[in-house]
Design brief:
Blueprint: E1 6-9, E2 14-17, E3 62-64, H1 79-93, E4 99-105, H2 109-120, E5 127-131, E6 139-143, E7 151-155, H3 162-172, E8 178-186, E9 192-201, H4 208-220, H5 224-229, H6 234-241, H7 264-272, H8 276-284, E10 289-292, E11 299-302, H9 304-313
Parallel strand pairs: 3-4, 4-5
Antiparallel strand pairs: 1-2, 6-7, 8-9, 10-11
Helix pairs in contact: 1-2, 8-9
Length: about 325
């Protein structure tokens, strides 16, 4: 007691005694507090009646993580369930937005669909925000779904080989165990004869026996380039890898081409996410605006009249 400093806290106007510094003691047998955490019973919470002073801020807001951490302890919500809960959060937060933000995962298509539907509600609060695990290294994948700010997932390059780096990206950033293989078969004149590959990903709750069979098959499969040289098609490559599984091929085949799924409707959803106040400020400027897609460089113009219609739709 005699060596602990006494100081004045200007916030509470009270004298405070410096916290006791507990020395680190190396003991032979650790104290694991079995009286509180027995193996045979539910853990206990003990109260010692000490009063801990609270210094509450003038304004308090809530950032809700129901759609992020809240989904990690239960079966994932459906898109419809997420939108319904988001409506409830809007009502609970009230007009002053006590529930200020709601955090969303953006890994799966279902996650992104839910974000878009929640943004279409046009609520000022809760603000729709995204969360993604990221390592600030060289490999960056940026995906933009019309939110105020794009989000990015970054993972380090592990080898410089595209297939290996994509496999690592799926595992590290999207938490999806995957196998990626790519190959390019060249002609003698250095032109491309064939190019292709495959991505195989595990579904949730897959059985360990299935994983072991798949791992053995992937370990023994020849390189994609060799398969091309032997005349294999995408269908026969899949058959070679998934021979013991019941594979159903879709009759629909899509051409390989560069395609951006941006549209004026998606850009309109981005404007909806701004909320009424920001849209009103844009309208007051008296000039049409132009939104630019960073992926395909398309531009979309919105007149003052269109902006007014979007703003009015938020009230409906």
């Amino acid at each position: 007691m005699e060596n602990r400093r006494v100081t004045m806290n200007n916030k509470t106007n009270l004298l405070e005694l410096e916290e006791h510094m507990y020395p680190l003691v190396d003991v032979k047998t650790p104290n694991v507090f079995r009286n509180l955490f027995p193996y045979s019973e539910v853990p206990k919470i003990a109260f010692n009646d000490r009063v801990v002073p609270h210094h509450m801020p003038e304004d308090i807001w809530i950032t809700d993580t129901t759609f992020r951490d809240g989904q990690q302890s239960r079966a994932p919500y459906s898109t419809e369930q997420i939108v319904t809960i988001f409506d409830y959060l809007h009502k609970l937060g009230g007009p002053k937005g006590k529930v200020r933000q709601s955090e969303f995962f953006l890994y799966s298509k279902k996650d992104r669909d839910a974000v878009i539907k929640c943004m279409e509600r046009g609520y000022k609060f809760p603000e729709v925000t995204s969360w993604i695990r990221a390592n600030k290294k060289d490999f960056e994948l940026v995906k933009d779904i019309g939110m105020k700010e794009p989000y990015s997932g970054q993972v380090q390059l592990v080898s410089g080989e595209i297939a290996e780096d994509l496999t690592y990206y799926f595992a590290a950033s999207e938490q999806t165990p995957s196998s990626v293989a790519l190959g390019v078969l060249m002609n003698k004149n250095n032109t491309v004869a064939q190019a292709g590959g495959y991505i195989i990903q595990l579904m949730p709750d897959v059985e360990e026996e299935t994983i072991e069979i798949l791992e053995k098959r992937l370990a023994s499969i020849e390189p994609v380039t060799t398969l091309f040289e032997k005349g294999h098609s995408p269908e026969s490559i899949l058959a070679a890898i998934l021979d013991s599984f019941e594979v159903e091929l879709s009759e629909e085949k899509l051409p390989v081409c560069f395609h951006c799924n941006c549209s004026k409707e998606r850009m309109e959803r981005a404007l909806v996410s701004l909320g009424s106040k920001e849209l009103e400020d844009i309208i007051k400027d008296g000039e049409s605006i132009e939104l630019h897609c960073h992926f395909c460089n398309s531009n979309y113009s919105f007149s003052i009249e269109e902006l007014k219609q979007i703003k009015n739709s938020l009230k409906e």
